[in-house]
Write a structure and sequence with these properties.
Blueprint lengths: L1 H29 L10 E8 L15 E4 L2 E3 L3 E3 L6 E8 L8 H17 L6 E7 L3 E8 L2 H8 L10 H13 L4 E8 L10 H10 L2 E7 L10 E2 L2 E2 H9 L10 H15 L2 E5 L11 E7 L7 E3 L3 E3 L5
Parallel strand pairs: 5-6, 5-8, 8-9
Antiparallel strand pairs: 1-12, 1-14, 2-3, 2-13, 4-12, 6-7, 10-11, 13-15
Helix pairs in contact: 2-3, 2-7, 4-5, 5-6
């Protein structure tokens, strides 16, 4: 009996300790858990001087980035980034392209050959044809022979659904690592899309894609090219960090593809984690990139991105 009385204080202390522990566990389980998920925002930036020459010698300290008007800290910086390129090529096969299609196909083939011969060994392209319908001819690959086989089967007919093509090509880009690019070769006249200009713009921006429209001249059909008095394709290009081209077929078109690849091979990569943003910020963030000490330089990058502000 005496031995039992000797252990009762220890037993009470043990039970008391267990009760405290269980209470702490329950309290912790009831505490709300806040998860902060701030994604890295990547900006691909092309810089040129007044003469149009690429400027590739800048450092991170030369750039200033603002997100919704709030200055951000650049945490990732690369000269002439070699992150893999994923390029969605959209080729117009509407009836209005009949006389130029074979020349466009020849230039596209040269572009694909140059893409896989240079740069990152993971660079790849996909191929879409569009008239009043949008058709995926090839998923992402580096095998130019596959593109050549499919390009030979193209026949121009019907209308032009350029906005639909951009809208449908964008989701596959979102799933790929590295840099995202959309190149569209067309006469510039959207006539049959179910999607609108804003749908195409939103899809490209959500895919973080740079858009390069190549409008083959002479342009015979201006329908659908203007939105609110502005050239729709030029607006889309400017807002995604690309630029529009207006070549004739042949040598000018070849040079256009060469310039696009040159721009892509001489891009800066700037990255930052959004910080100090107001809680009322919307889903679309406006981004501004400047080079304060070199205001004469021209900067091309996207105008913003879609993303939630972490609370």
């Amino acid at each position: 009996m005496g031995r039992r009385r000797h252990h009762r204080p220890q037993l009470r202390r043990l039970l008391f300790g267990v009760a405290l522990l269980l209470g702490a566990v329950n309290a912790a389980a009831q505490e709300p858990v806040f998860k902060v998920d701030v994604r890295l925002v990547r900006l691909l930036v092309t810089v040129k001087n007044a003469a149009g020459d690429l400027v590739g010698s800048l450092e991170a300290r030369d750039f200033a980035v603002a997100d919704n008007g709030v200055k951000q800290d650049i945490t990732v910086f690369e000269h002439q980034t070699t992150q893999p390129l994923s390029i969605a090529l959209l080729i117009d096969i509407s009836a209005s392209t009949a006389k130029d299609l074979r020349y466009e196909i020849a230039s596209v083939t040269k572009f694909l050959e140059a893409l896989v011969q240079e740069g990152n060994p993971d660079d790849a392209a996909s191929l879409y044809a569009f008239n009043d319908q949008v058709t995926l001819l090839n998923a992402y690959t580096r095998r130019v022979s596959r593109f050549e086989e499919r390009l030979k089967t193209l026949k121009p007919e019907a209308g032009t659904s350029l906005y639909d093509a951009i809208y449908l090509a964008a989701p596959a880009l979102r799933e790929r690592q590295g840099r995202h690019v959309i190149v569209a070769i067309s006469d510039g006249g959207d006539t049959t899309s179910a999607k609108k200009f804003k749908d195409a713009m939103d899809a490209a921006q959500k895919a973080d894609a740079i858009f390069y429209p190549i409008v083959v001249v002479p342009i015979t059909n201006p329908a659908g090219r203007n939105t609110a008095g502005e050239h729709a394709l030029e607006t889309l290009a400017a807002n995604t960090g690309g630029r529009a081209f207006y070549p004739t077929v042949g040598a000018q078109l070849d040079r256009t593809f060469t310039e696009i690849l040159r721009d892509l091979r001489t891009q800066y990569l700037l990255g930052y984690y959004p910080a100090r943003l107001p809680t009322g910020a919307g889903a679309f963030h406006t981004v501004r990139v400047e080079i304060p000490r070199r205001p004469e330089l021209r900067i091309s990058t996207r105008s913003g991105y879609y993303g939630e502000v972490a609370r």
